[in-house]
Q: What sequence folds into this?
């Protein structure tokens, strides 16, 4: 009998029922520490780049390089990982991530770092994330014995990520002011070790491996996505939201320093406000995210993104900007996580790795393109105007998508 039907499981509240599975508990703890470290590193890297160069273009380039590999190689990576032992691959990737953070810490401490070096580190991080993110997502199903608990496990994983997104940036801001960016990178390496330790301890049930060449496996996944209308519609929504709404992240150092005359602490508050909204969205999904209602959450989240972008453009004071960022983080997470839940719950188990990889490619790849474009536009017209343009374009895109769905 699986632990999913045991009396121990029944004692867990419905909103956190996936934590009744021991393997998921171990993964959850390690992932929590690791994700906190990731956010500390992301804030420190962005602040270091802007502090050294003052370049909005470099900020956009960093966002692009750290995310674009997921669009370019993510789908092929999904086909590749479906043919291999996912847990073993994730352990290897985690070891490389630890080494990358240690190199970044040493180079910053020794003052060997400059704009090109930061860009190279961002590219390496992007390449590693193109493997690490779909591997983690695809493994979650192996840590819960009852498939009915998979949507809850996905929500709890997203909740963990967004809790770290809320805590990590303010922590990074304070740590930068206290000890400098090198300490942030060293802390990230230690945090990655927590997930590595969890992966060495868990023994999830291995899913079926795909047969055939990587090209054949890739085509099989692509055919499933193309022939499933609901999946196509969901991925279009992912593209719009992350191209136009998630671009805000590349502009936060500009807002903190040039618009609100702040330091790394203000940057941490801005990032933390978006993280707080994102965390609340995961709470909403954990409590009320039943599968039949998820499409409504996806649409509502996208609409809130458009409203928040326009509000952030009009915000003339820091408190209003923090409020708008909270709504923006809520909308992006509500839309993305509810989409992920629908895709993973509906995908056949042997295709799940590829479906996740395509979703992640759209999610982070178009955020990369949006961040790059936002940096270029902000260099000419400023960050607030860039956010206003993004909000207006998202409204137009959502109206067009609604009209197409009405006609289909």
A:
């Amino acid at each position: 009998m699986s632990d999913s039907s045991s009396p121990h499981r029944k004692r867990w509240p419905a909103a956190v029922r996936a934590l009744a599975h021991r393997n998921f508990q171990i993964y959850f703890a390690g992932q929590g520490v690791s994700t906190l470290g990731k956010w500390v590193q992301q804030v420190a890297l962005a602040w270091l780049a802007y502090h050294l160069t003052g370049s909005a273009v470099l900020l956009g380039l960093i966002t692009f390089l750290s995310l674009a590999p997921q669009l370019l190689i993510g789908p092929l990576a999904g086909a590749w990982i479906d043919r291999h032992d996912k847990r073993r691959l994730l352990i290897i990737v985690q070891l490389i991530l630890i080494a990358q953070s240690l190199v970044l810490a040493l180079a910053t401490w020794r003052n060997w770092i400059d704009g090109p070096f930061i860009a190279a580190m961002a590219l390496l991080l992007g390449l590693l994330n193109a493997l690490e993110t779909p591997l983690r997502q695809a493994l979650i199903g192996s840590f819960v014995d009852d498939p009915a608990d998979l949507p809850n496990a996905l929500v709890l994983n997203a909740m963990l990520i967004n809790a770290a997104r809320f805590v990590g940036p303010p922590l990074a801001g304070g740590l930068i002011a206290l000890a400098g960016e090198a300490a942030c990178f060293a802390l990230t390496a230690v945090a990655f070790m927590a997930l590595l330790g969890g992966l060495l301890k868990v023994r999830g049930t291995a899913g079926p491996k795909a047969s055939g060449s990587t090209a054949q496996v890739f085509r099989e996944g692509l055919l499933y996505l193309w022939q499933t209308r609901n999946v196509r519609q969901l991925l279009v929504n992912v593209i719009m939201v992350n191209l136009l709404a998630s671009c805000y992240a590349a502009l936060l150092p500009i807002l903190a320093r040039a618009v609100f005359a702040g330091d790394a602490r203000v940057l941490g508050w801005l990032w933390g406000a978006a993280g707080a909204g994102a965390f609340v969205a995961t709470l909403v999904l954990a409590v009320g995210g039943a599968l039949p209602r998820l499409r409504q959450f996806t649409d509502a989240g996208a609409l809130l993104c458009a409203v928040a972008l326009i509000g952030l453009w009009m915000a003339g004071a820091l408190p209003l900007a923090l409020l708008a960022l909270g709504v923006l983080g809520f909308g992006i997470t509500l839309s993305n996580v509810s989409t992920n839940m629908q895709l993973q719950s509906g995908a056949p188990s042997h295709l799940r790795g590829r479906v996740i990889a395509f979703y992640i490619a759209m999610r982070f790849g178009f955020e990369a393109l949006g961040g790059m474009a936002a940096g270029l536009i902000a260099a000419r017209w400023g960050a607030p105007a860039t956010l206003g343009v993004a909000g207006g374009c998202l409204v137009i895109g959502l109206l067009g998508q609604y009209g197409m769905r009405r006609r289909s």
In short: The two ends are 45 Å apart (CA to CA). Residues 13-202+214-407 form a domain with the Growth Hormone; Chain: A; fold (CATH 1.20.1250.20). The chain has one domain: 13-202+214-407. Residues 22-53 form the longest helix (32 residues).
